[in-house]
Amino acid sequence: MIRDPETFNILRDTVRRFVRERLIPAENDVAANDEIPHEIVHEMRAMGLFGLAIPAEYGGLGLTLEEEVLVAIEMCRASPAFRSIAGTNNGIGSQGIVIDGTDEQKQRYLPRLATGELIGSFALTEPGAGSDAASLTTSARRDGDHYVLNGAKRYITNAPEAGVFTVMARTDAKNKHAGGVSAFLVERDTPGLSVGRPDRKMGQRGAHTADVIFEDVRVPAANLIGGKEGAGFKTAMKVLDKARLNIAAVCVGAAQRMLDDSLQYAVNRSQFQKPIAEFQLVQAMLADCKTDIFAAQSMTLEAARMRDEGASVTLEASCCKYFASEMCCRVADRAVQIHGGAGYMQEYAVERFYRDVRLFRIFEGTSQIQQLVIARSLIKQAQGH
Ligand SMILES: Cc1cc2nc3c(=O)[nH]c(=O)nc-3n(C[C@H](O)[C@H](O)[C@H](O)COP(=O)(O)OP(=O)(O)OC[C@H]3O[C@@H](n4cnc5c(N)ncnc54)[C@H](O)[C@@H]3O)c2cc1C
Questions:
Q1: Could you say which DSSP state residue 62 is in?
Q2: How many CA atoms lie within 13 A of 318 on its CB side?
Q3: Cα(247) to centroid of ligand 1, in Å?
Q4: pTM over 0.90
Q5: Which of 90, 131, 205, 368 to mutate to test the pocket of ligand 1 (most atoms within 8 A of CB)?
Q6: What are the pLDDT digits (tens) for 21-68?
Q7: 14 CB under 6 A from ligand 1?
Q8: Quick one: what percent of the chain has pLDDT higher than 90?
Q9: Model confidence over 98-107: pLDDT tens digits?
Q10: Nearest ligand 1 atom, CA 123
Q11: Number of Cβ atoms within 10 Å of the Cβ of 283
Q12: Which protein residue's CA is at the shortest distance from atom 19 of ligand 1?
């Protein structure tokens, strides 16, 4: 749903210009230094990019999901690391509070997440619990008006930068399933919480992940999201429904950038005395990229509109995340191929994107997990549940 097309177009044009004039020229430095320059983070904050998905009453832009998806597509024409620094504040690092938080939790955290003064992270995955997230073993034991957390979380995006973590932990030791899990807001400087060294990854330099360790971390009971034990896994899944549509949009933006670069390369590179763009086998790769991108964009926008209208989109979000992330990797592969040897060289952005986008088929639920969500949902419908 686009509420006010005129205002929204101004935002979208501003983001488009920012990407072209500020982000794309800084990509090589970000990759070399593994860091987003502070001036750029500052400009992103001033533009409101940390609070796209946070309601206006808490200082965010309060975009609808369709609007947010369109902005994400624009942002991700530049290296995905730029979007990642603001991505958790708009997505998994804030939405647990937006969707299920108490008024007090919203007042306390959302305004600072909206400005980017505070970075939010989402800590679900553990060394022994990835795809089977409901088997997590981080424990939260009630002790007076606090909970005491113990355990370890793995590959947590923006952990090195985060000021507050949404942490899923088991409050009911006897219930080993999703119903025993609760979600907590844990502040970075709480004694006993430590963050490991940043992981050394295949790509996405400038975006950081790390382990987060909890050793007798005392968290006020007021920081239990929604004030209800046993609801944490449901909160996490609601957050992921929305996040999966955002990742699908990220994939569309990145794929569009790789196609733009490949098209430019194909019209400028000549072999056999003509531009390689005139060879039909190269044209087939360009056409397949465009078709893939158009399909992923259309389905993502449609699912975002459905969610804006209040529909449950668990199945559709999985379809979009699955198709768009697989599509993005197909486009990356063709983009490198169209560039030939140059595509294997670091001077060309497609070499970096090829590595960066590989992540999208893995995090926020692997492709196999999306297939399971889609199939289980269909089977449930067929069985009349
Ligand atoms: C860069 C990065 C950032 C991340 N950021 C975050 C974050 O911010 N917060 C967070 O909580 N987590 C984060 N993660 C973790 C991510 O969500 C998990 O890595 C992902 O869910 C997969 O879990 P796993 O790595 O344990 O793989 P596993 O679950 O061990 O999977 C290994 C393989 O087995 C397959 N598999 C597993 N179960 C099944 C099944 N039932 N049927 C078929 N195939 C199956 C998988 O699809 C995969 O191919 C991040 C990961 C990375 C790499």
A1: -
A2: 19
A3: 15
A4: yes
A5: 131
A6: 999 999 999 999 999 999 999 999 999 999 999 999 999 999 999 999
A7: no
A8: 99
A9: 999 999 999 9
A10: 11
A11: 13
A12: 363
